[in-house]
Every structure is written in structure tokens, then in C-alpha cells.
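Before surveying the methods themselves, it helps to consider a single example record, giving the amino acid sequence and C-alpha cells:
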Amino acid sequence: MEKVLYVDDEPEVRQIAQEILTKEGYEVILAKDGQEALELAMSQGPDLIILDYFMPPGLNGDEVCRQLKKQEETKSIPIIMVTAHPSEKEKSLGAGAIDFITKPVEKLDLLVRIRSALKIRHINNELQKIIAYIAELEKKIE
């Protein structure tokens, strides 16, 4: 079962996301702010993070994304940013998010983007294994 960390400061949004994602077979971890998101990302090792751009007070999604991408343990976790304003889309991608969803979030759009992000993660993981295997073979040849 793949783990999705959903981060939003609005309790209703988190509850709806949990219901939708749980029904689709995902294990859902919820965070109410940026600090909790950082802690849960480190301790729970999610396969994907969905991150609201605006989360007052404290760290916003942009800052959380940047911090996660700096950490060795979390830098390979794909992040989808949720934003209400088109101007934040470019900032989201610049911070390290691989995709963004515009609010209000539609269920189908959310699920399609989650599936795509997780496929990309699986492909990247397989690619890393192949690269490591090739490096091992090169050492044996030398």
C-alpha cells in the first residue's frame, strides 16, 4: 500500500482527501501545517506528498518543498503542490514540486496526478537500481 502525505491547514480539506484516497487504496497521512509535514515526511517515509501552497502560520508549501528537497531522506519523494492562484504554479515548480493542482481540487484530477507521480517514482527507483547494477558490473570488469 502506497503512502500519501496530504498537507493542508483546513481540516475539512484533509478529511475529504483522506476519504477519497483511502477508498482508492492509499495509506493516508495527514498534516495540518508545514512543520508537521516536515516531521511526518522524515518519520513516515511517504511515497508521495500533496502540499498546500498557503498554510498560515509558519512555513508555507514553497518553504516546506525546498526543505524536503535538501534532505537526503526526502529529496526523491515527489511533491504535488495545491494552489489557488496561477502565479504560484511557477514558484511551486521552482521549489521542487513535480506538478501542481489548482483549487478547487477535483477528485479525478487529483487521482490522475497521484497515479502519474507514483509511476514516475517507481520508474526512477528502477532506474537507480539499474544504474547501481551497471556500476557494480563495471567494477568487476576492471
Notes: The longest strand covers residues 3-7. The chain has a mean pLDDT of 93.
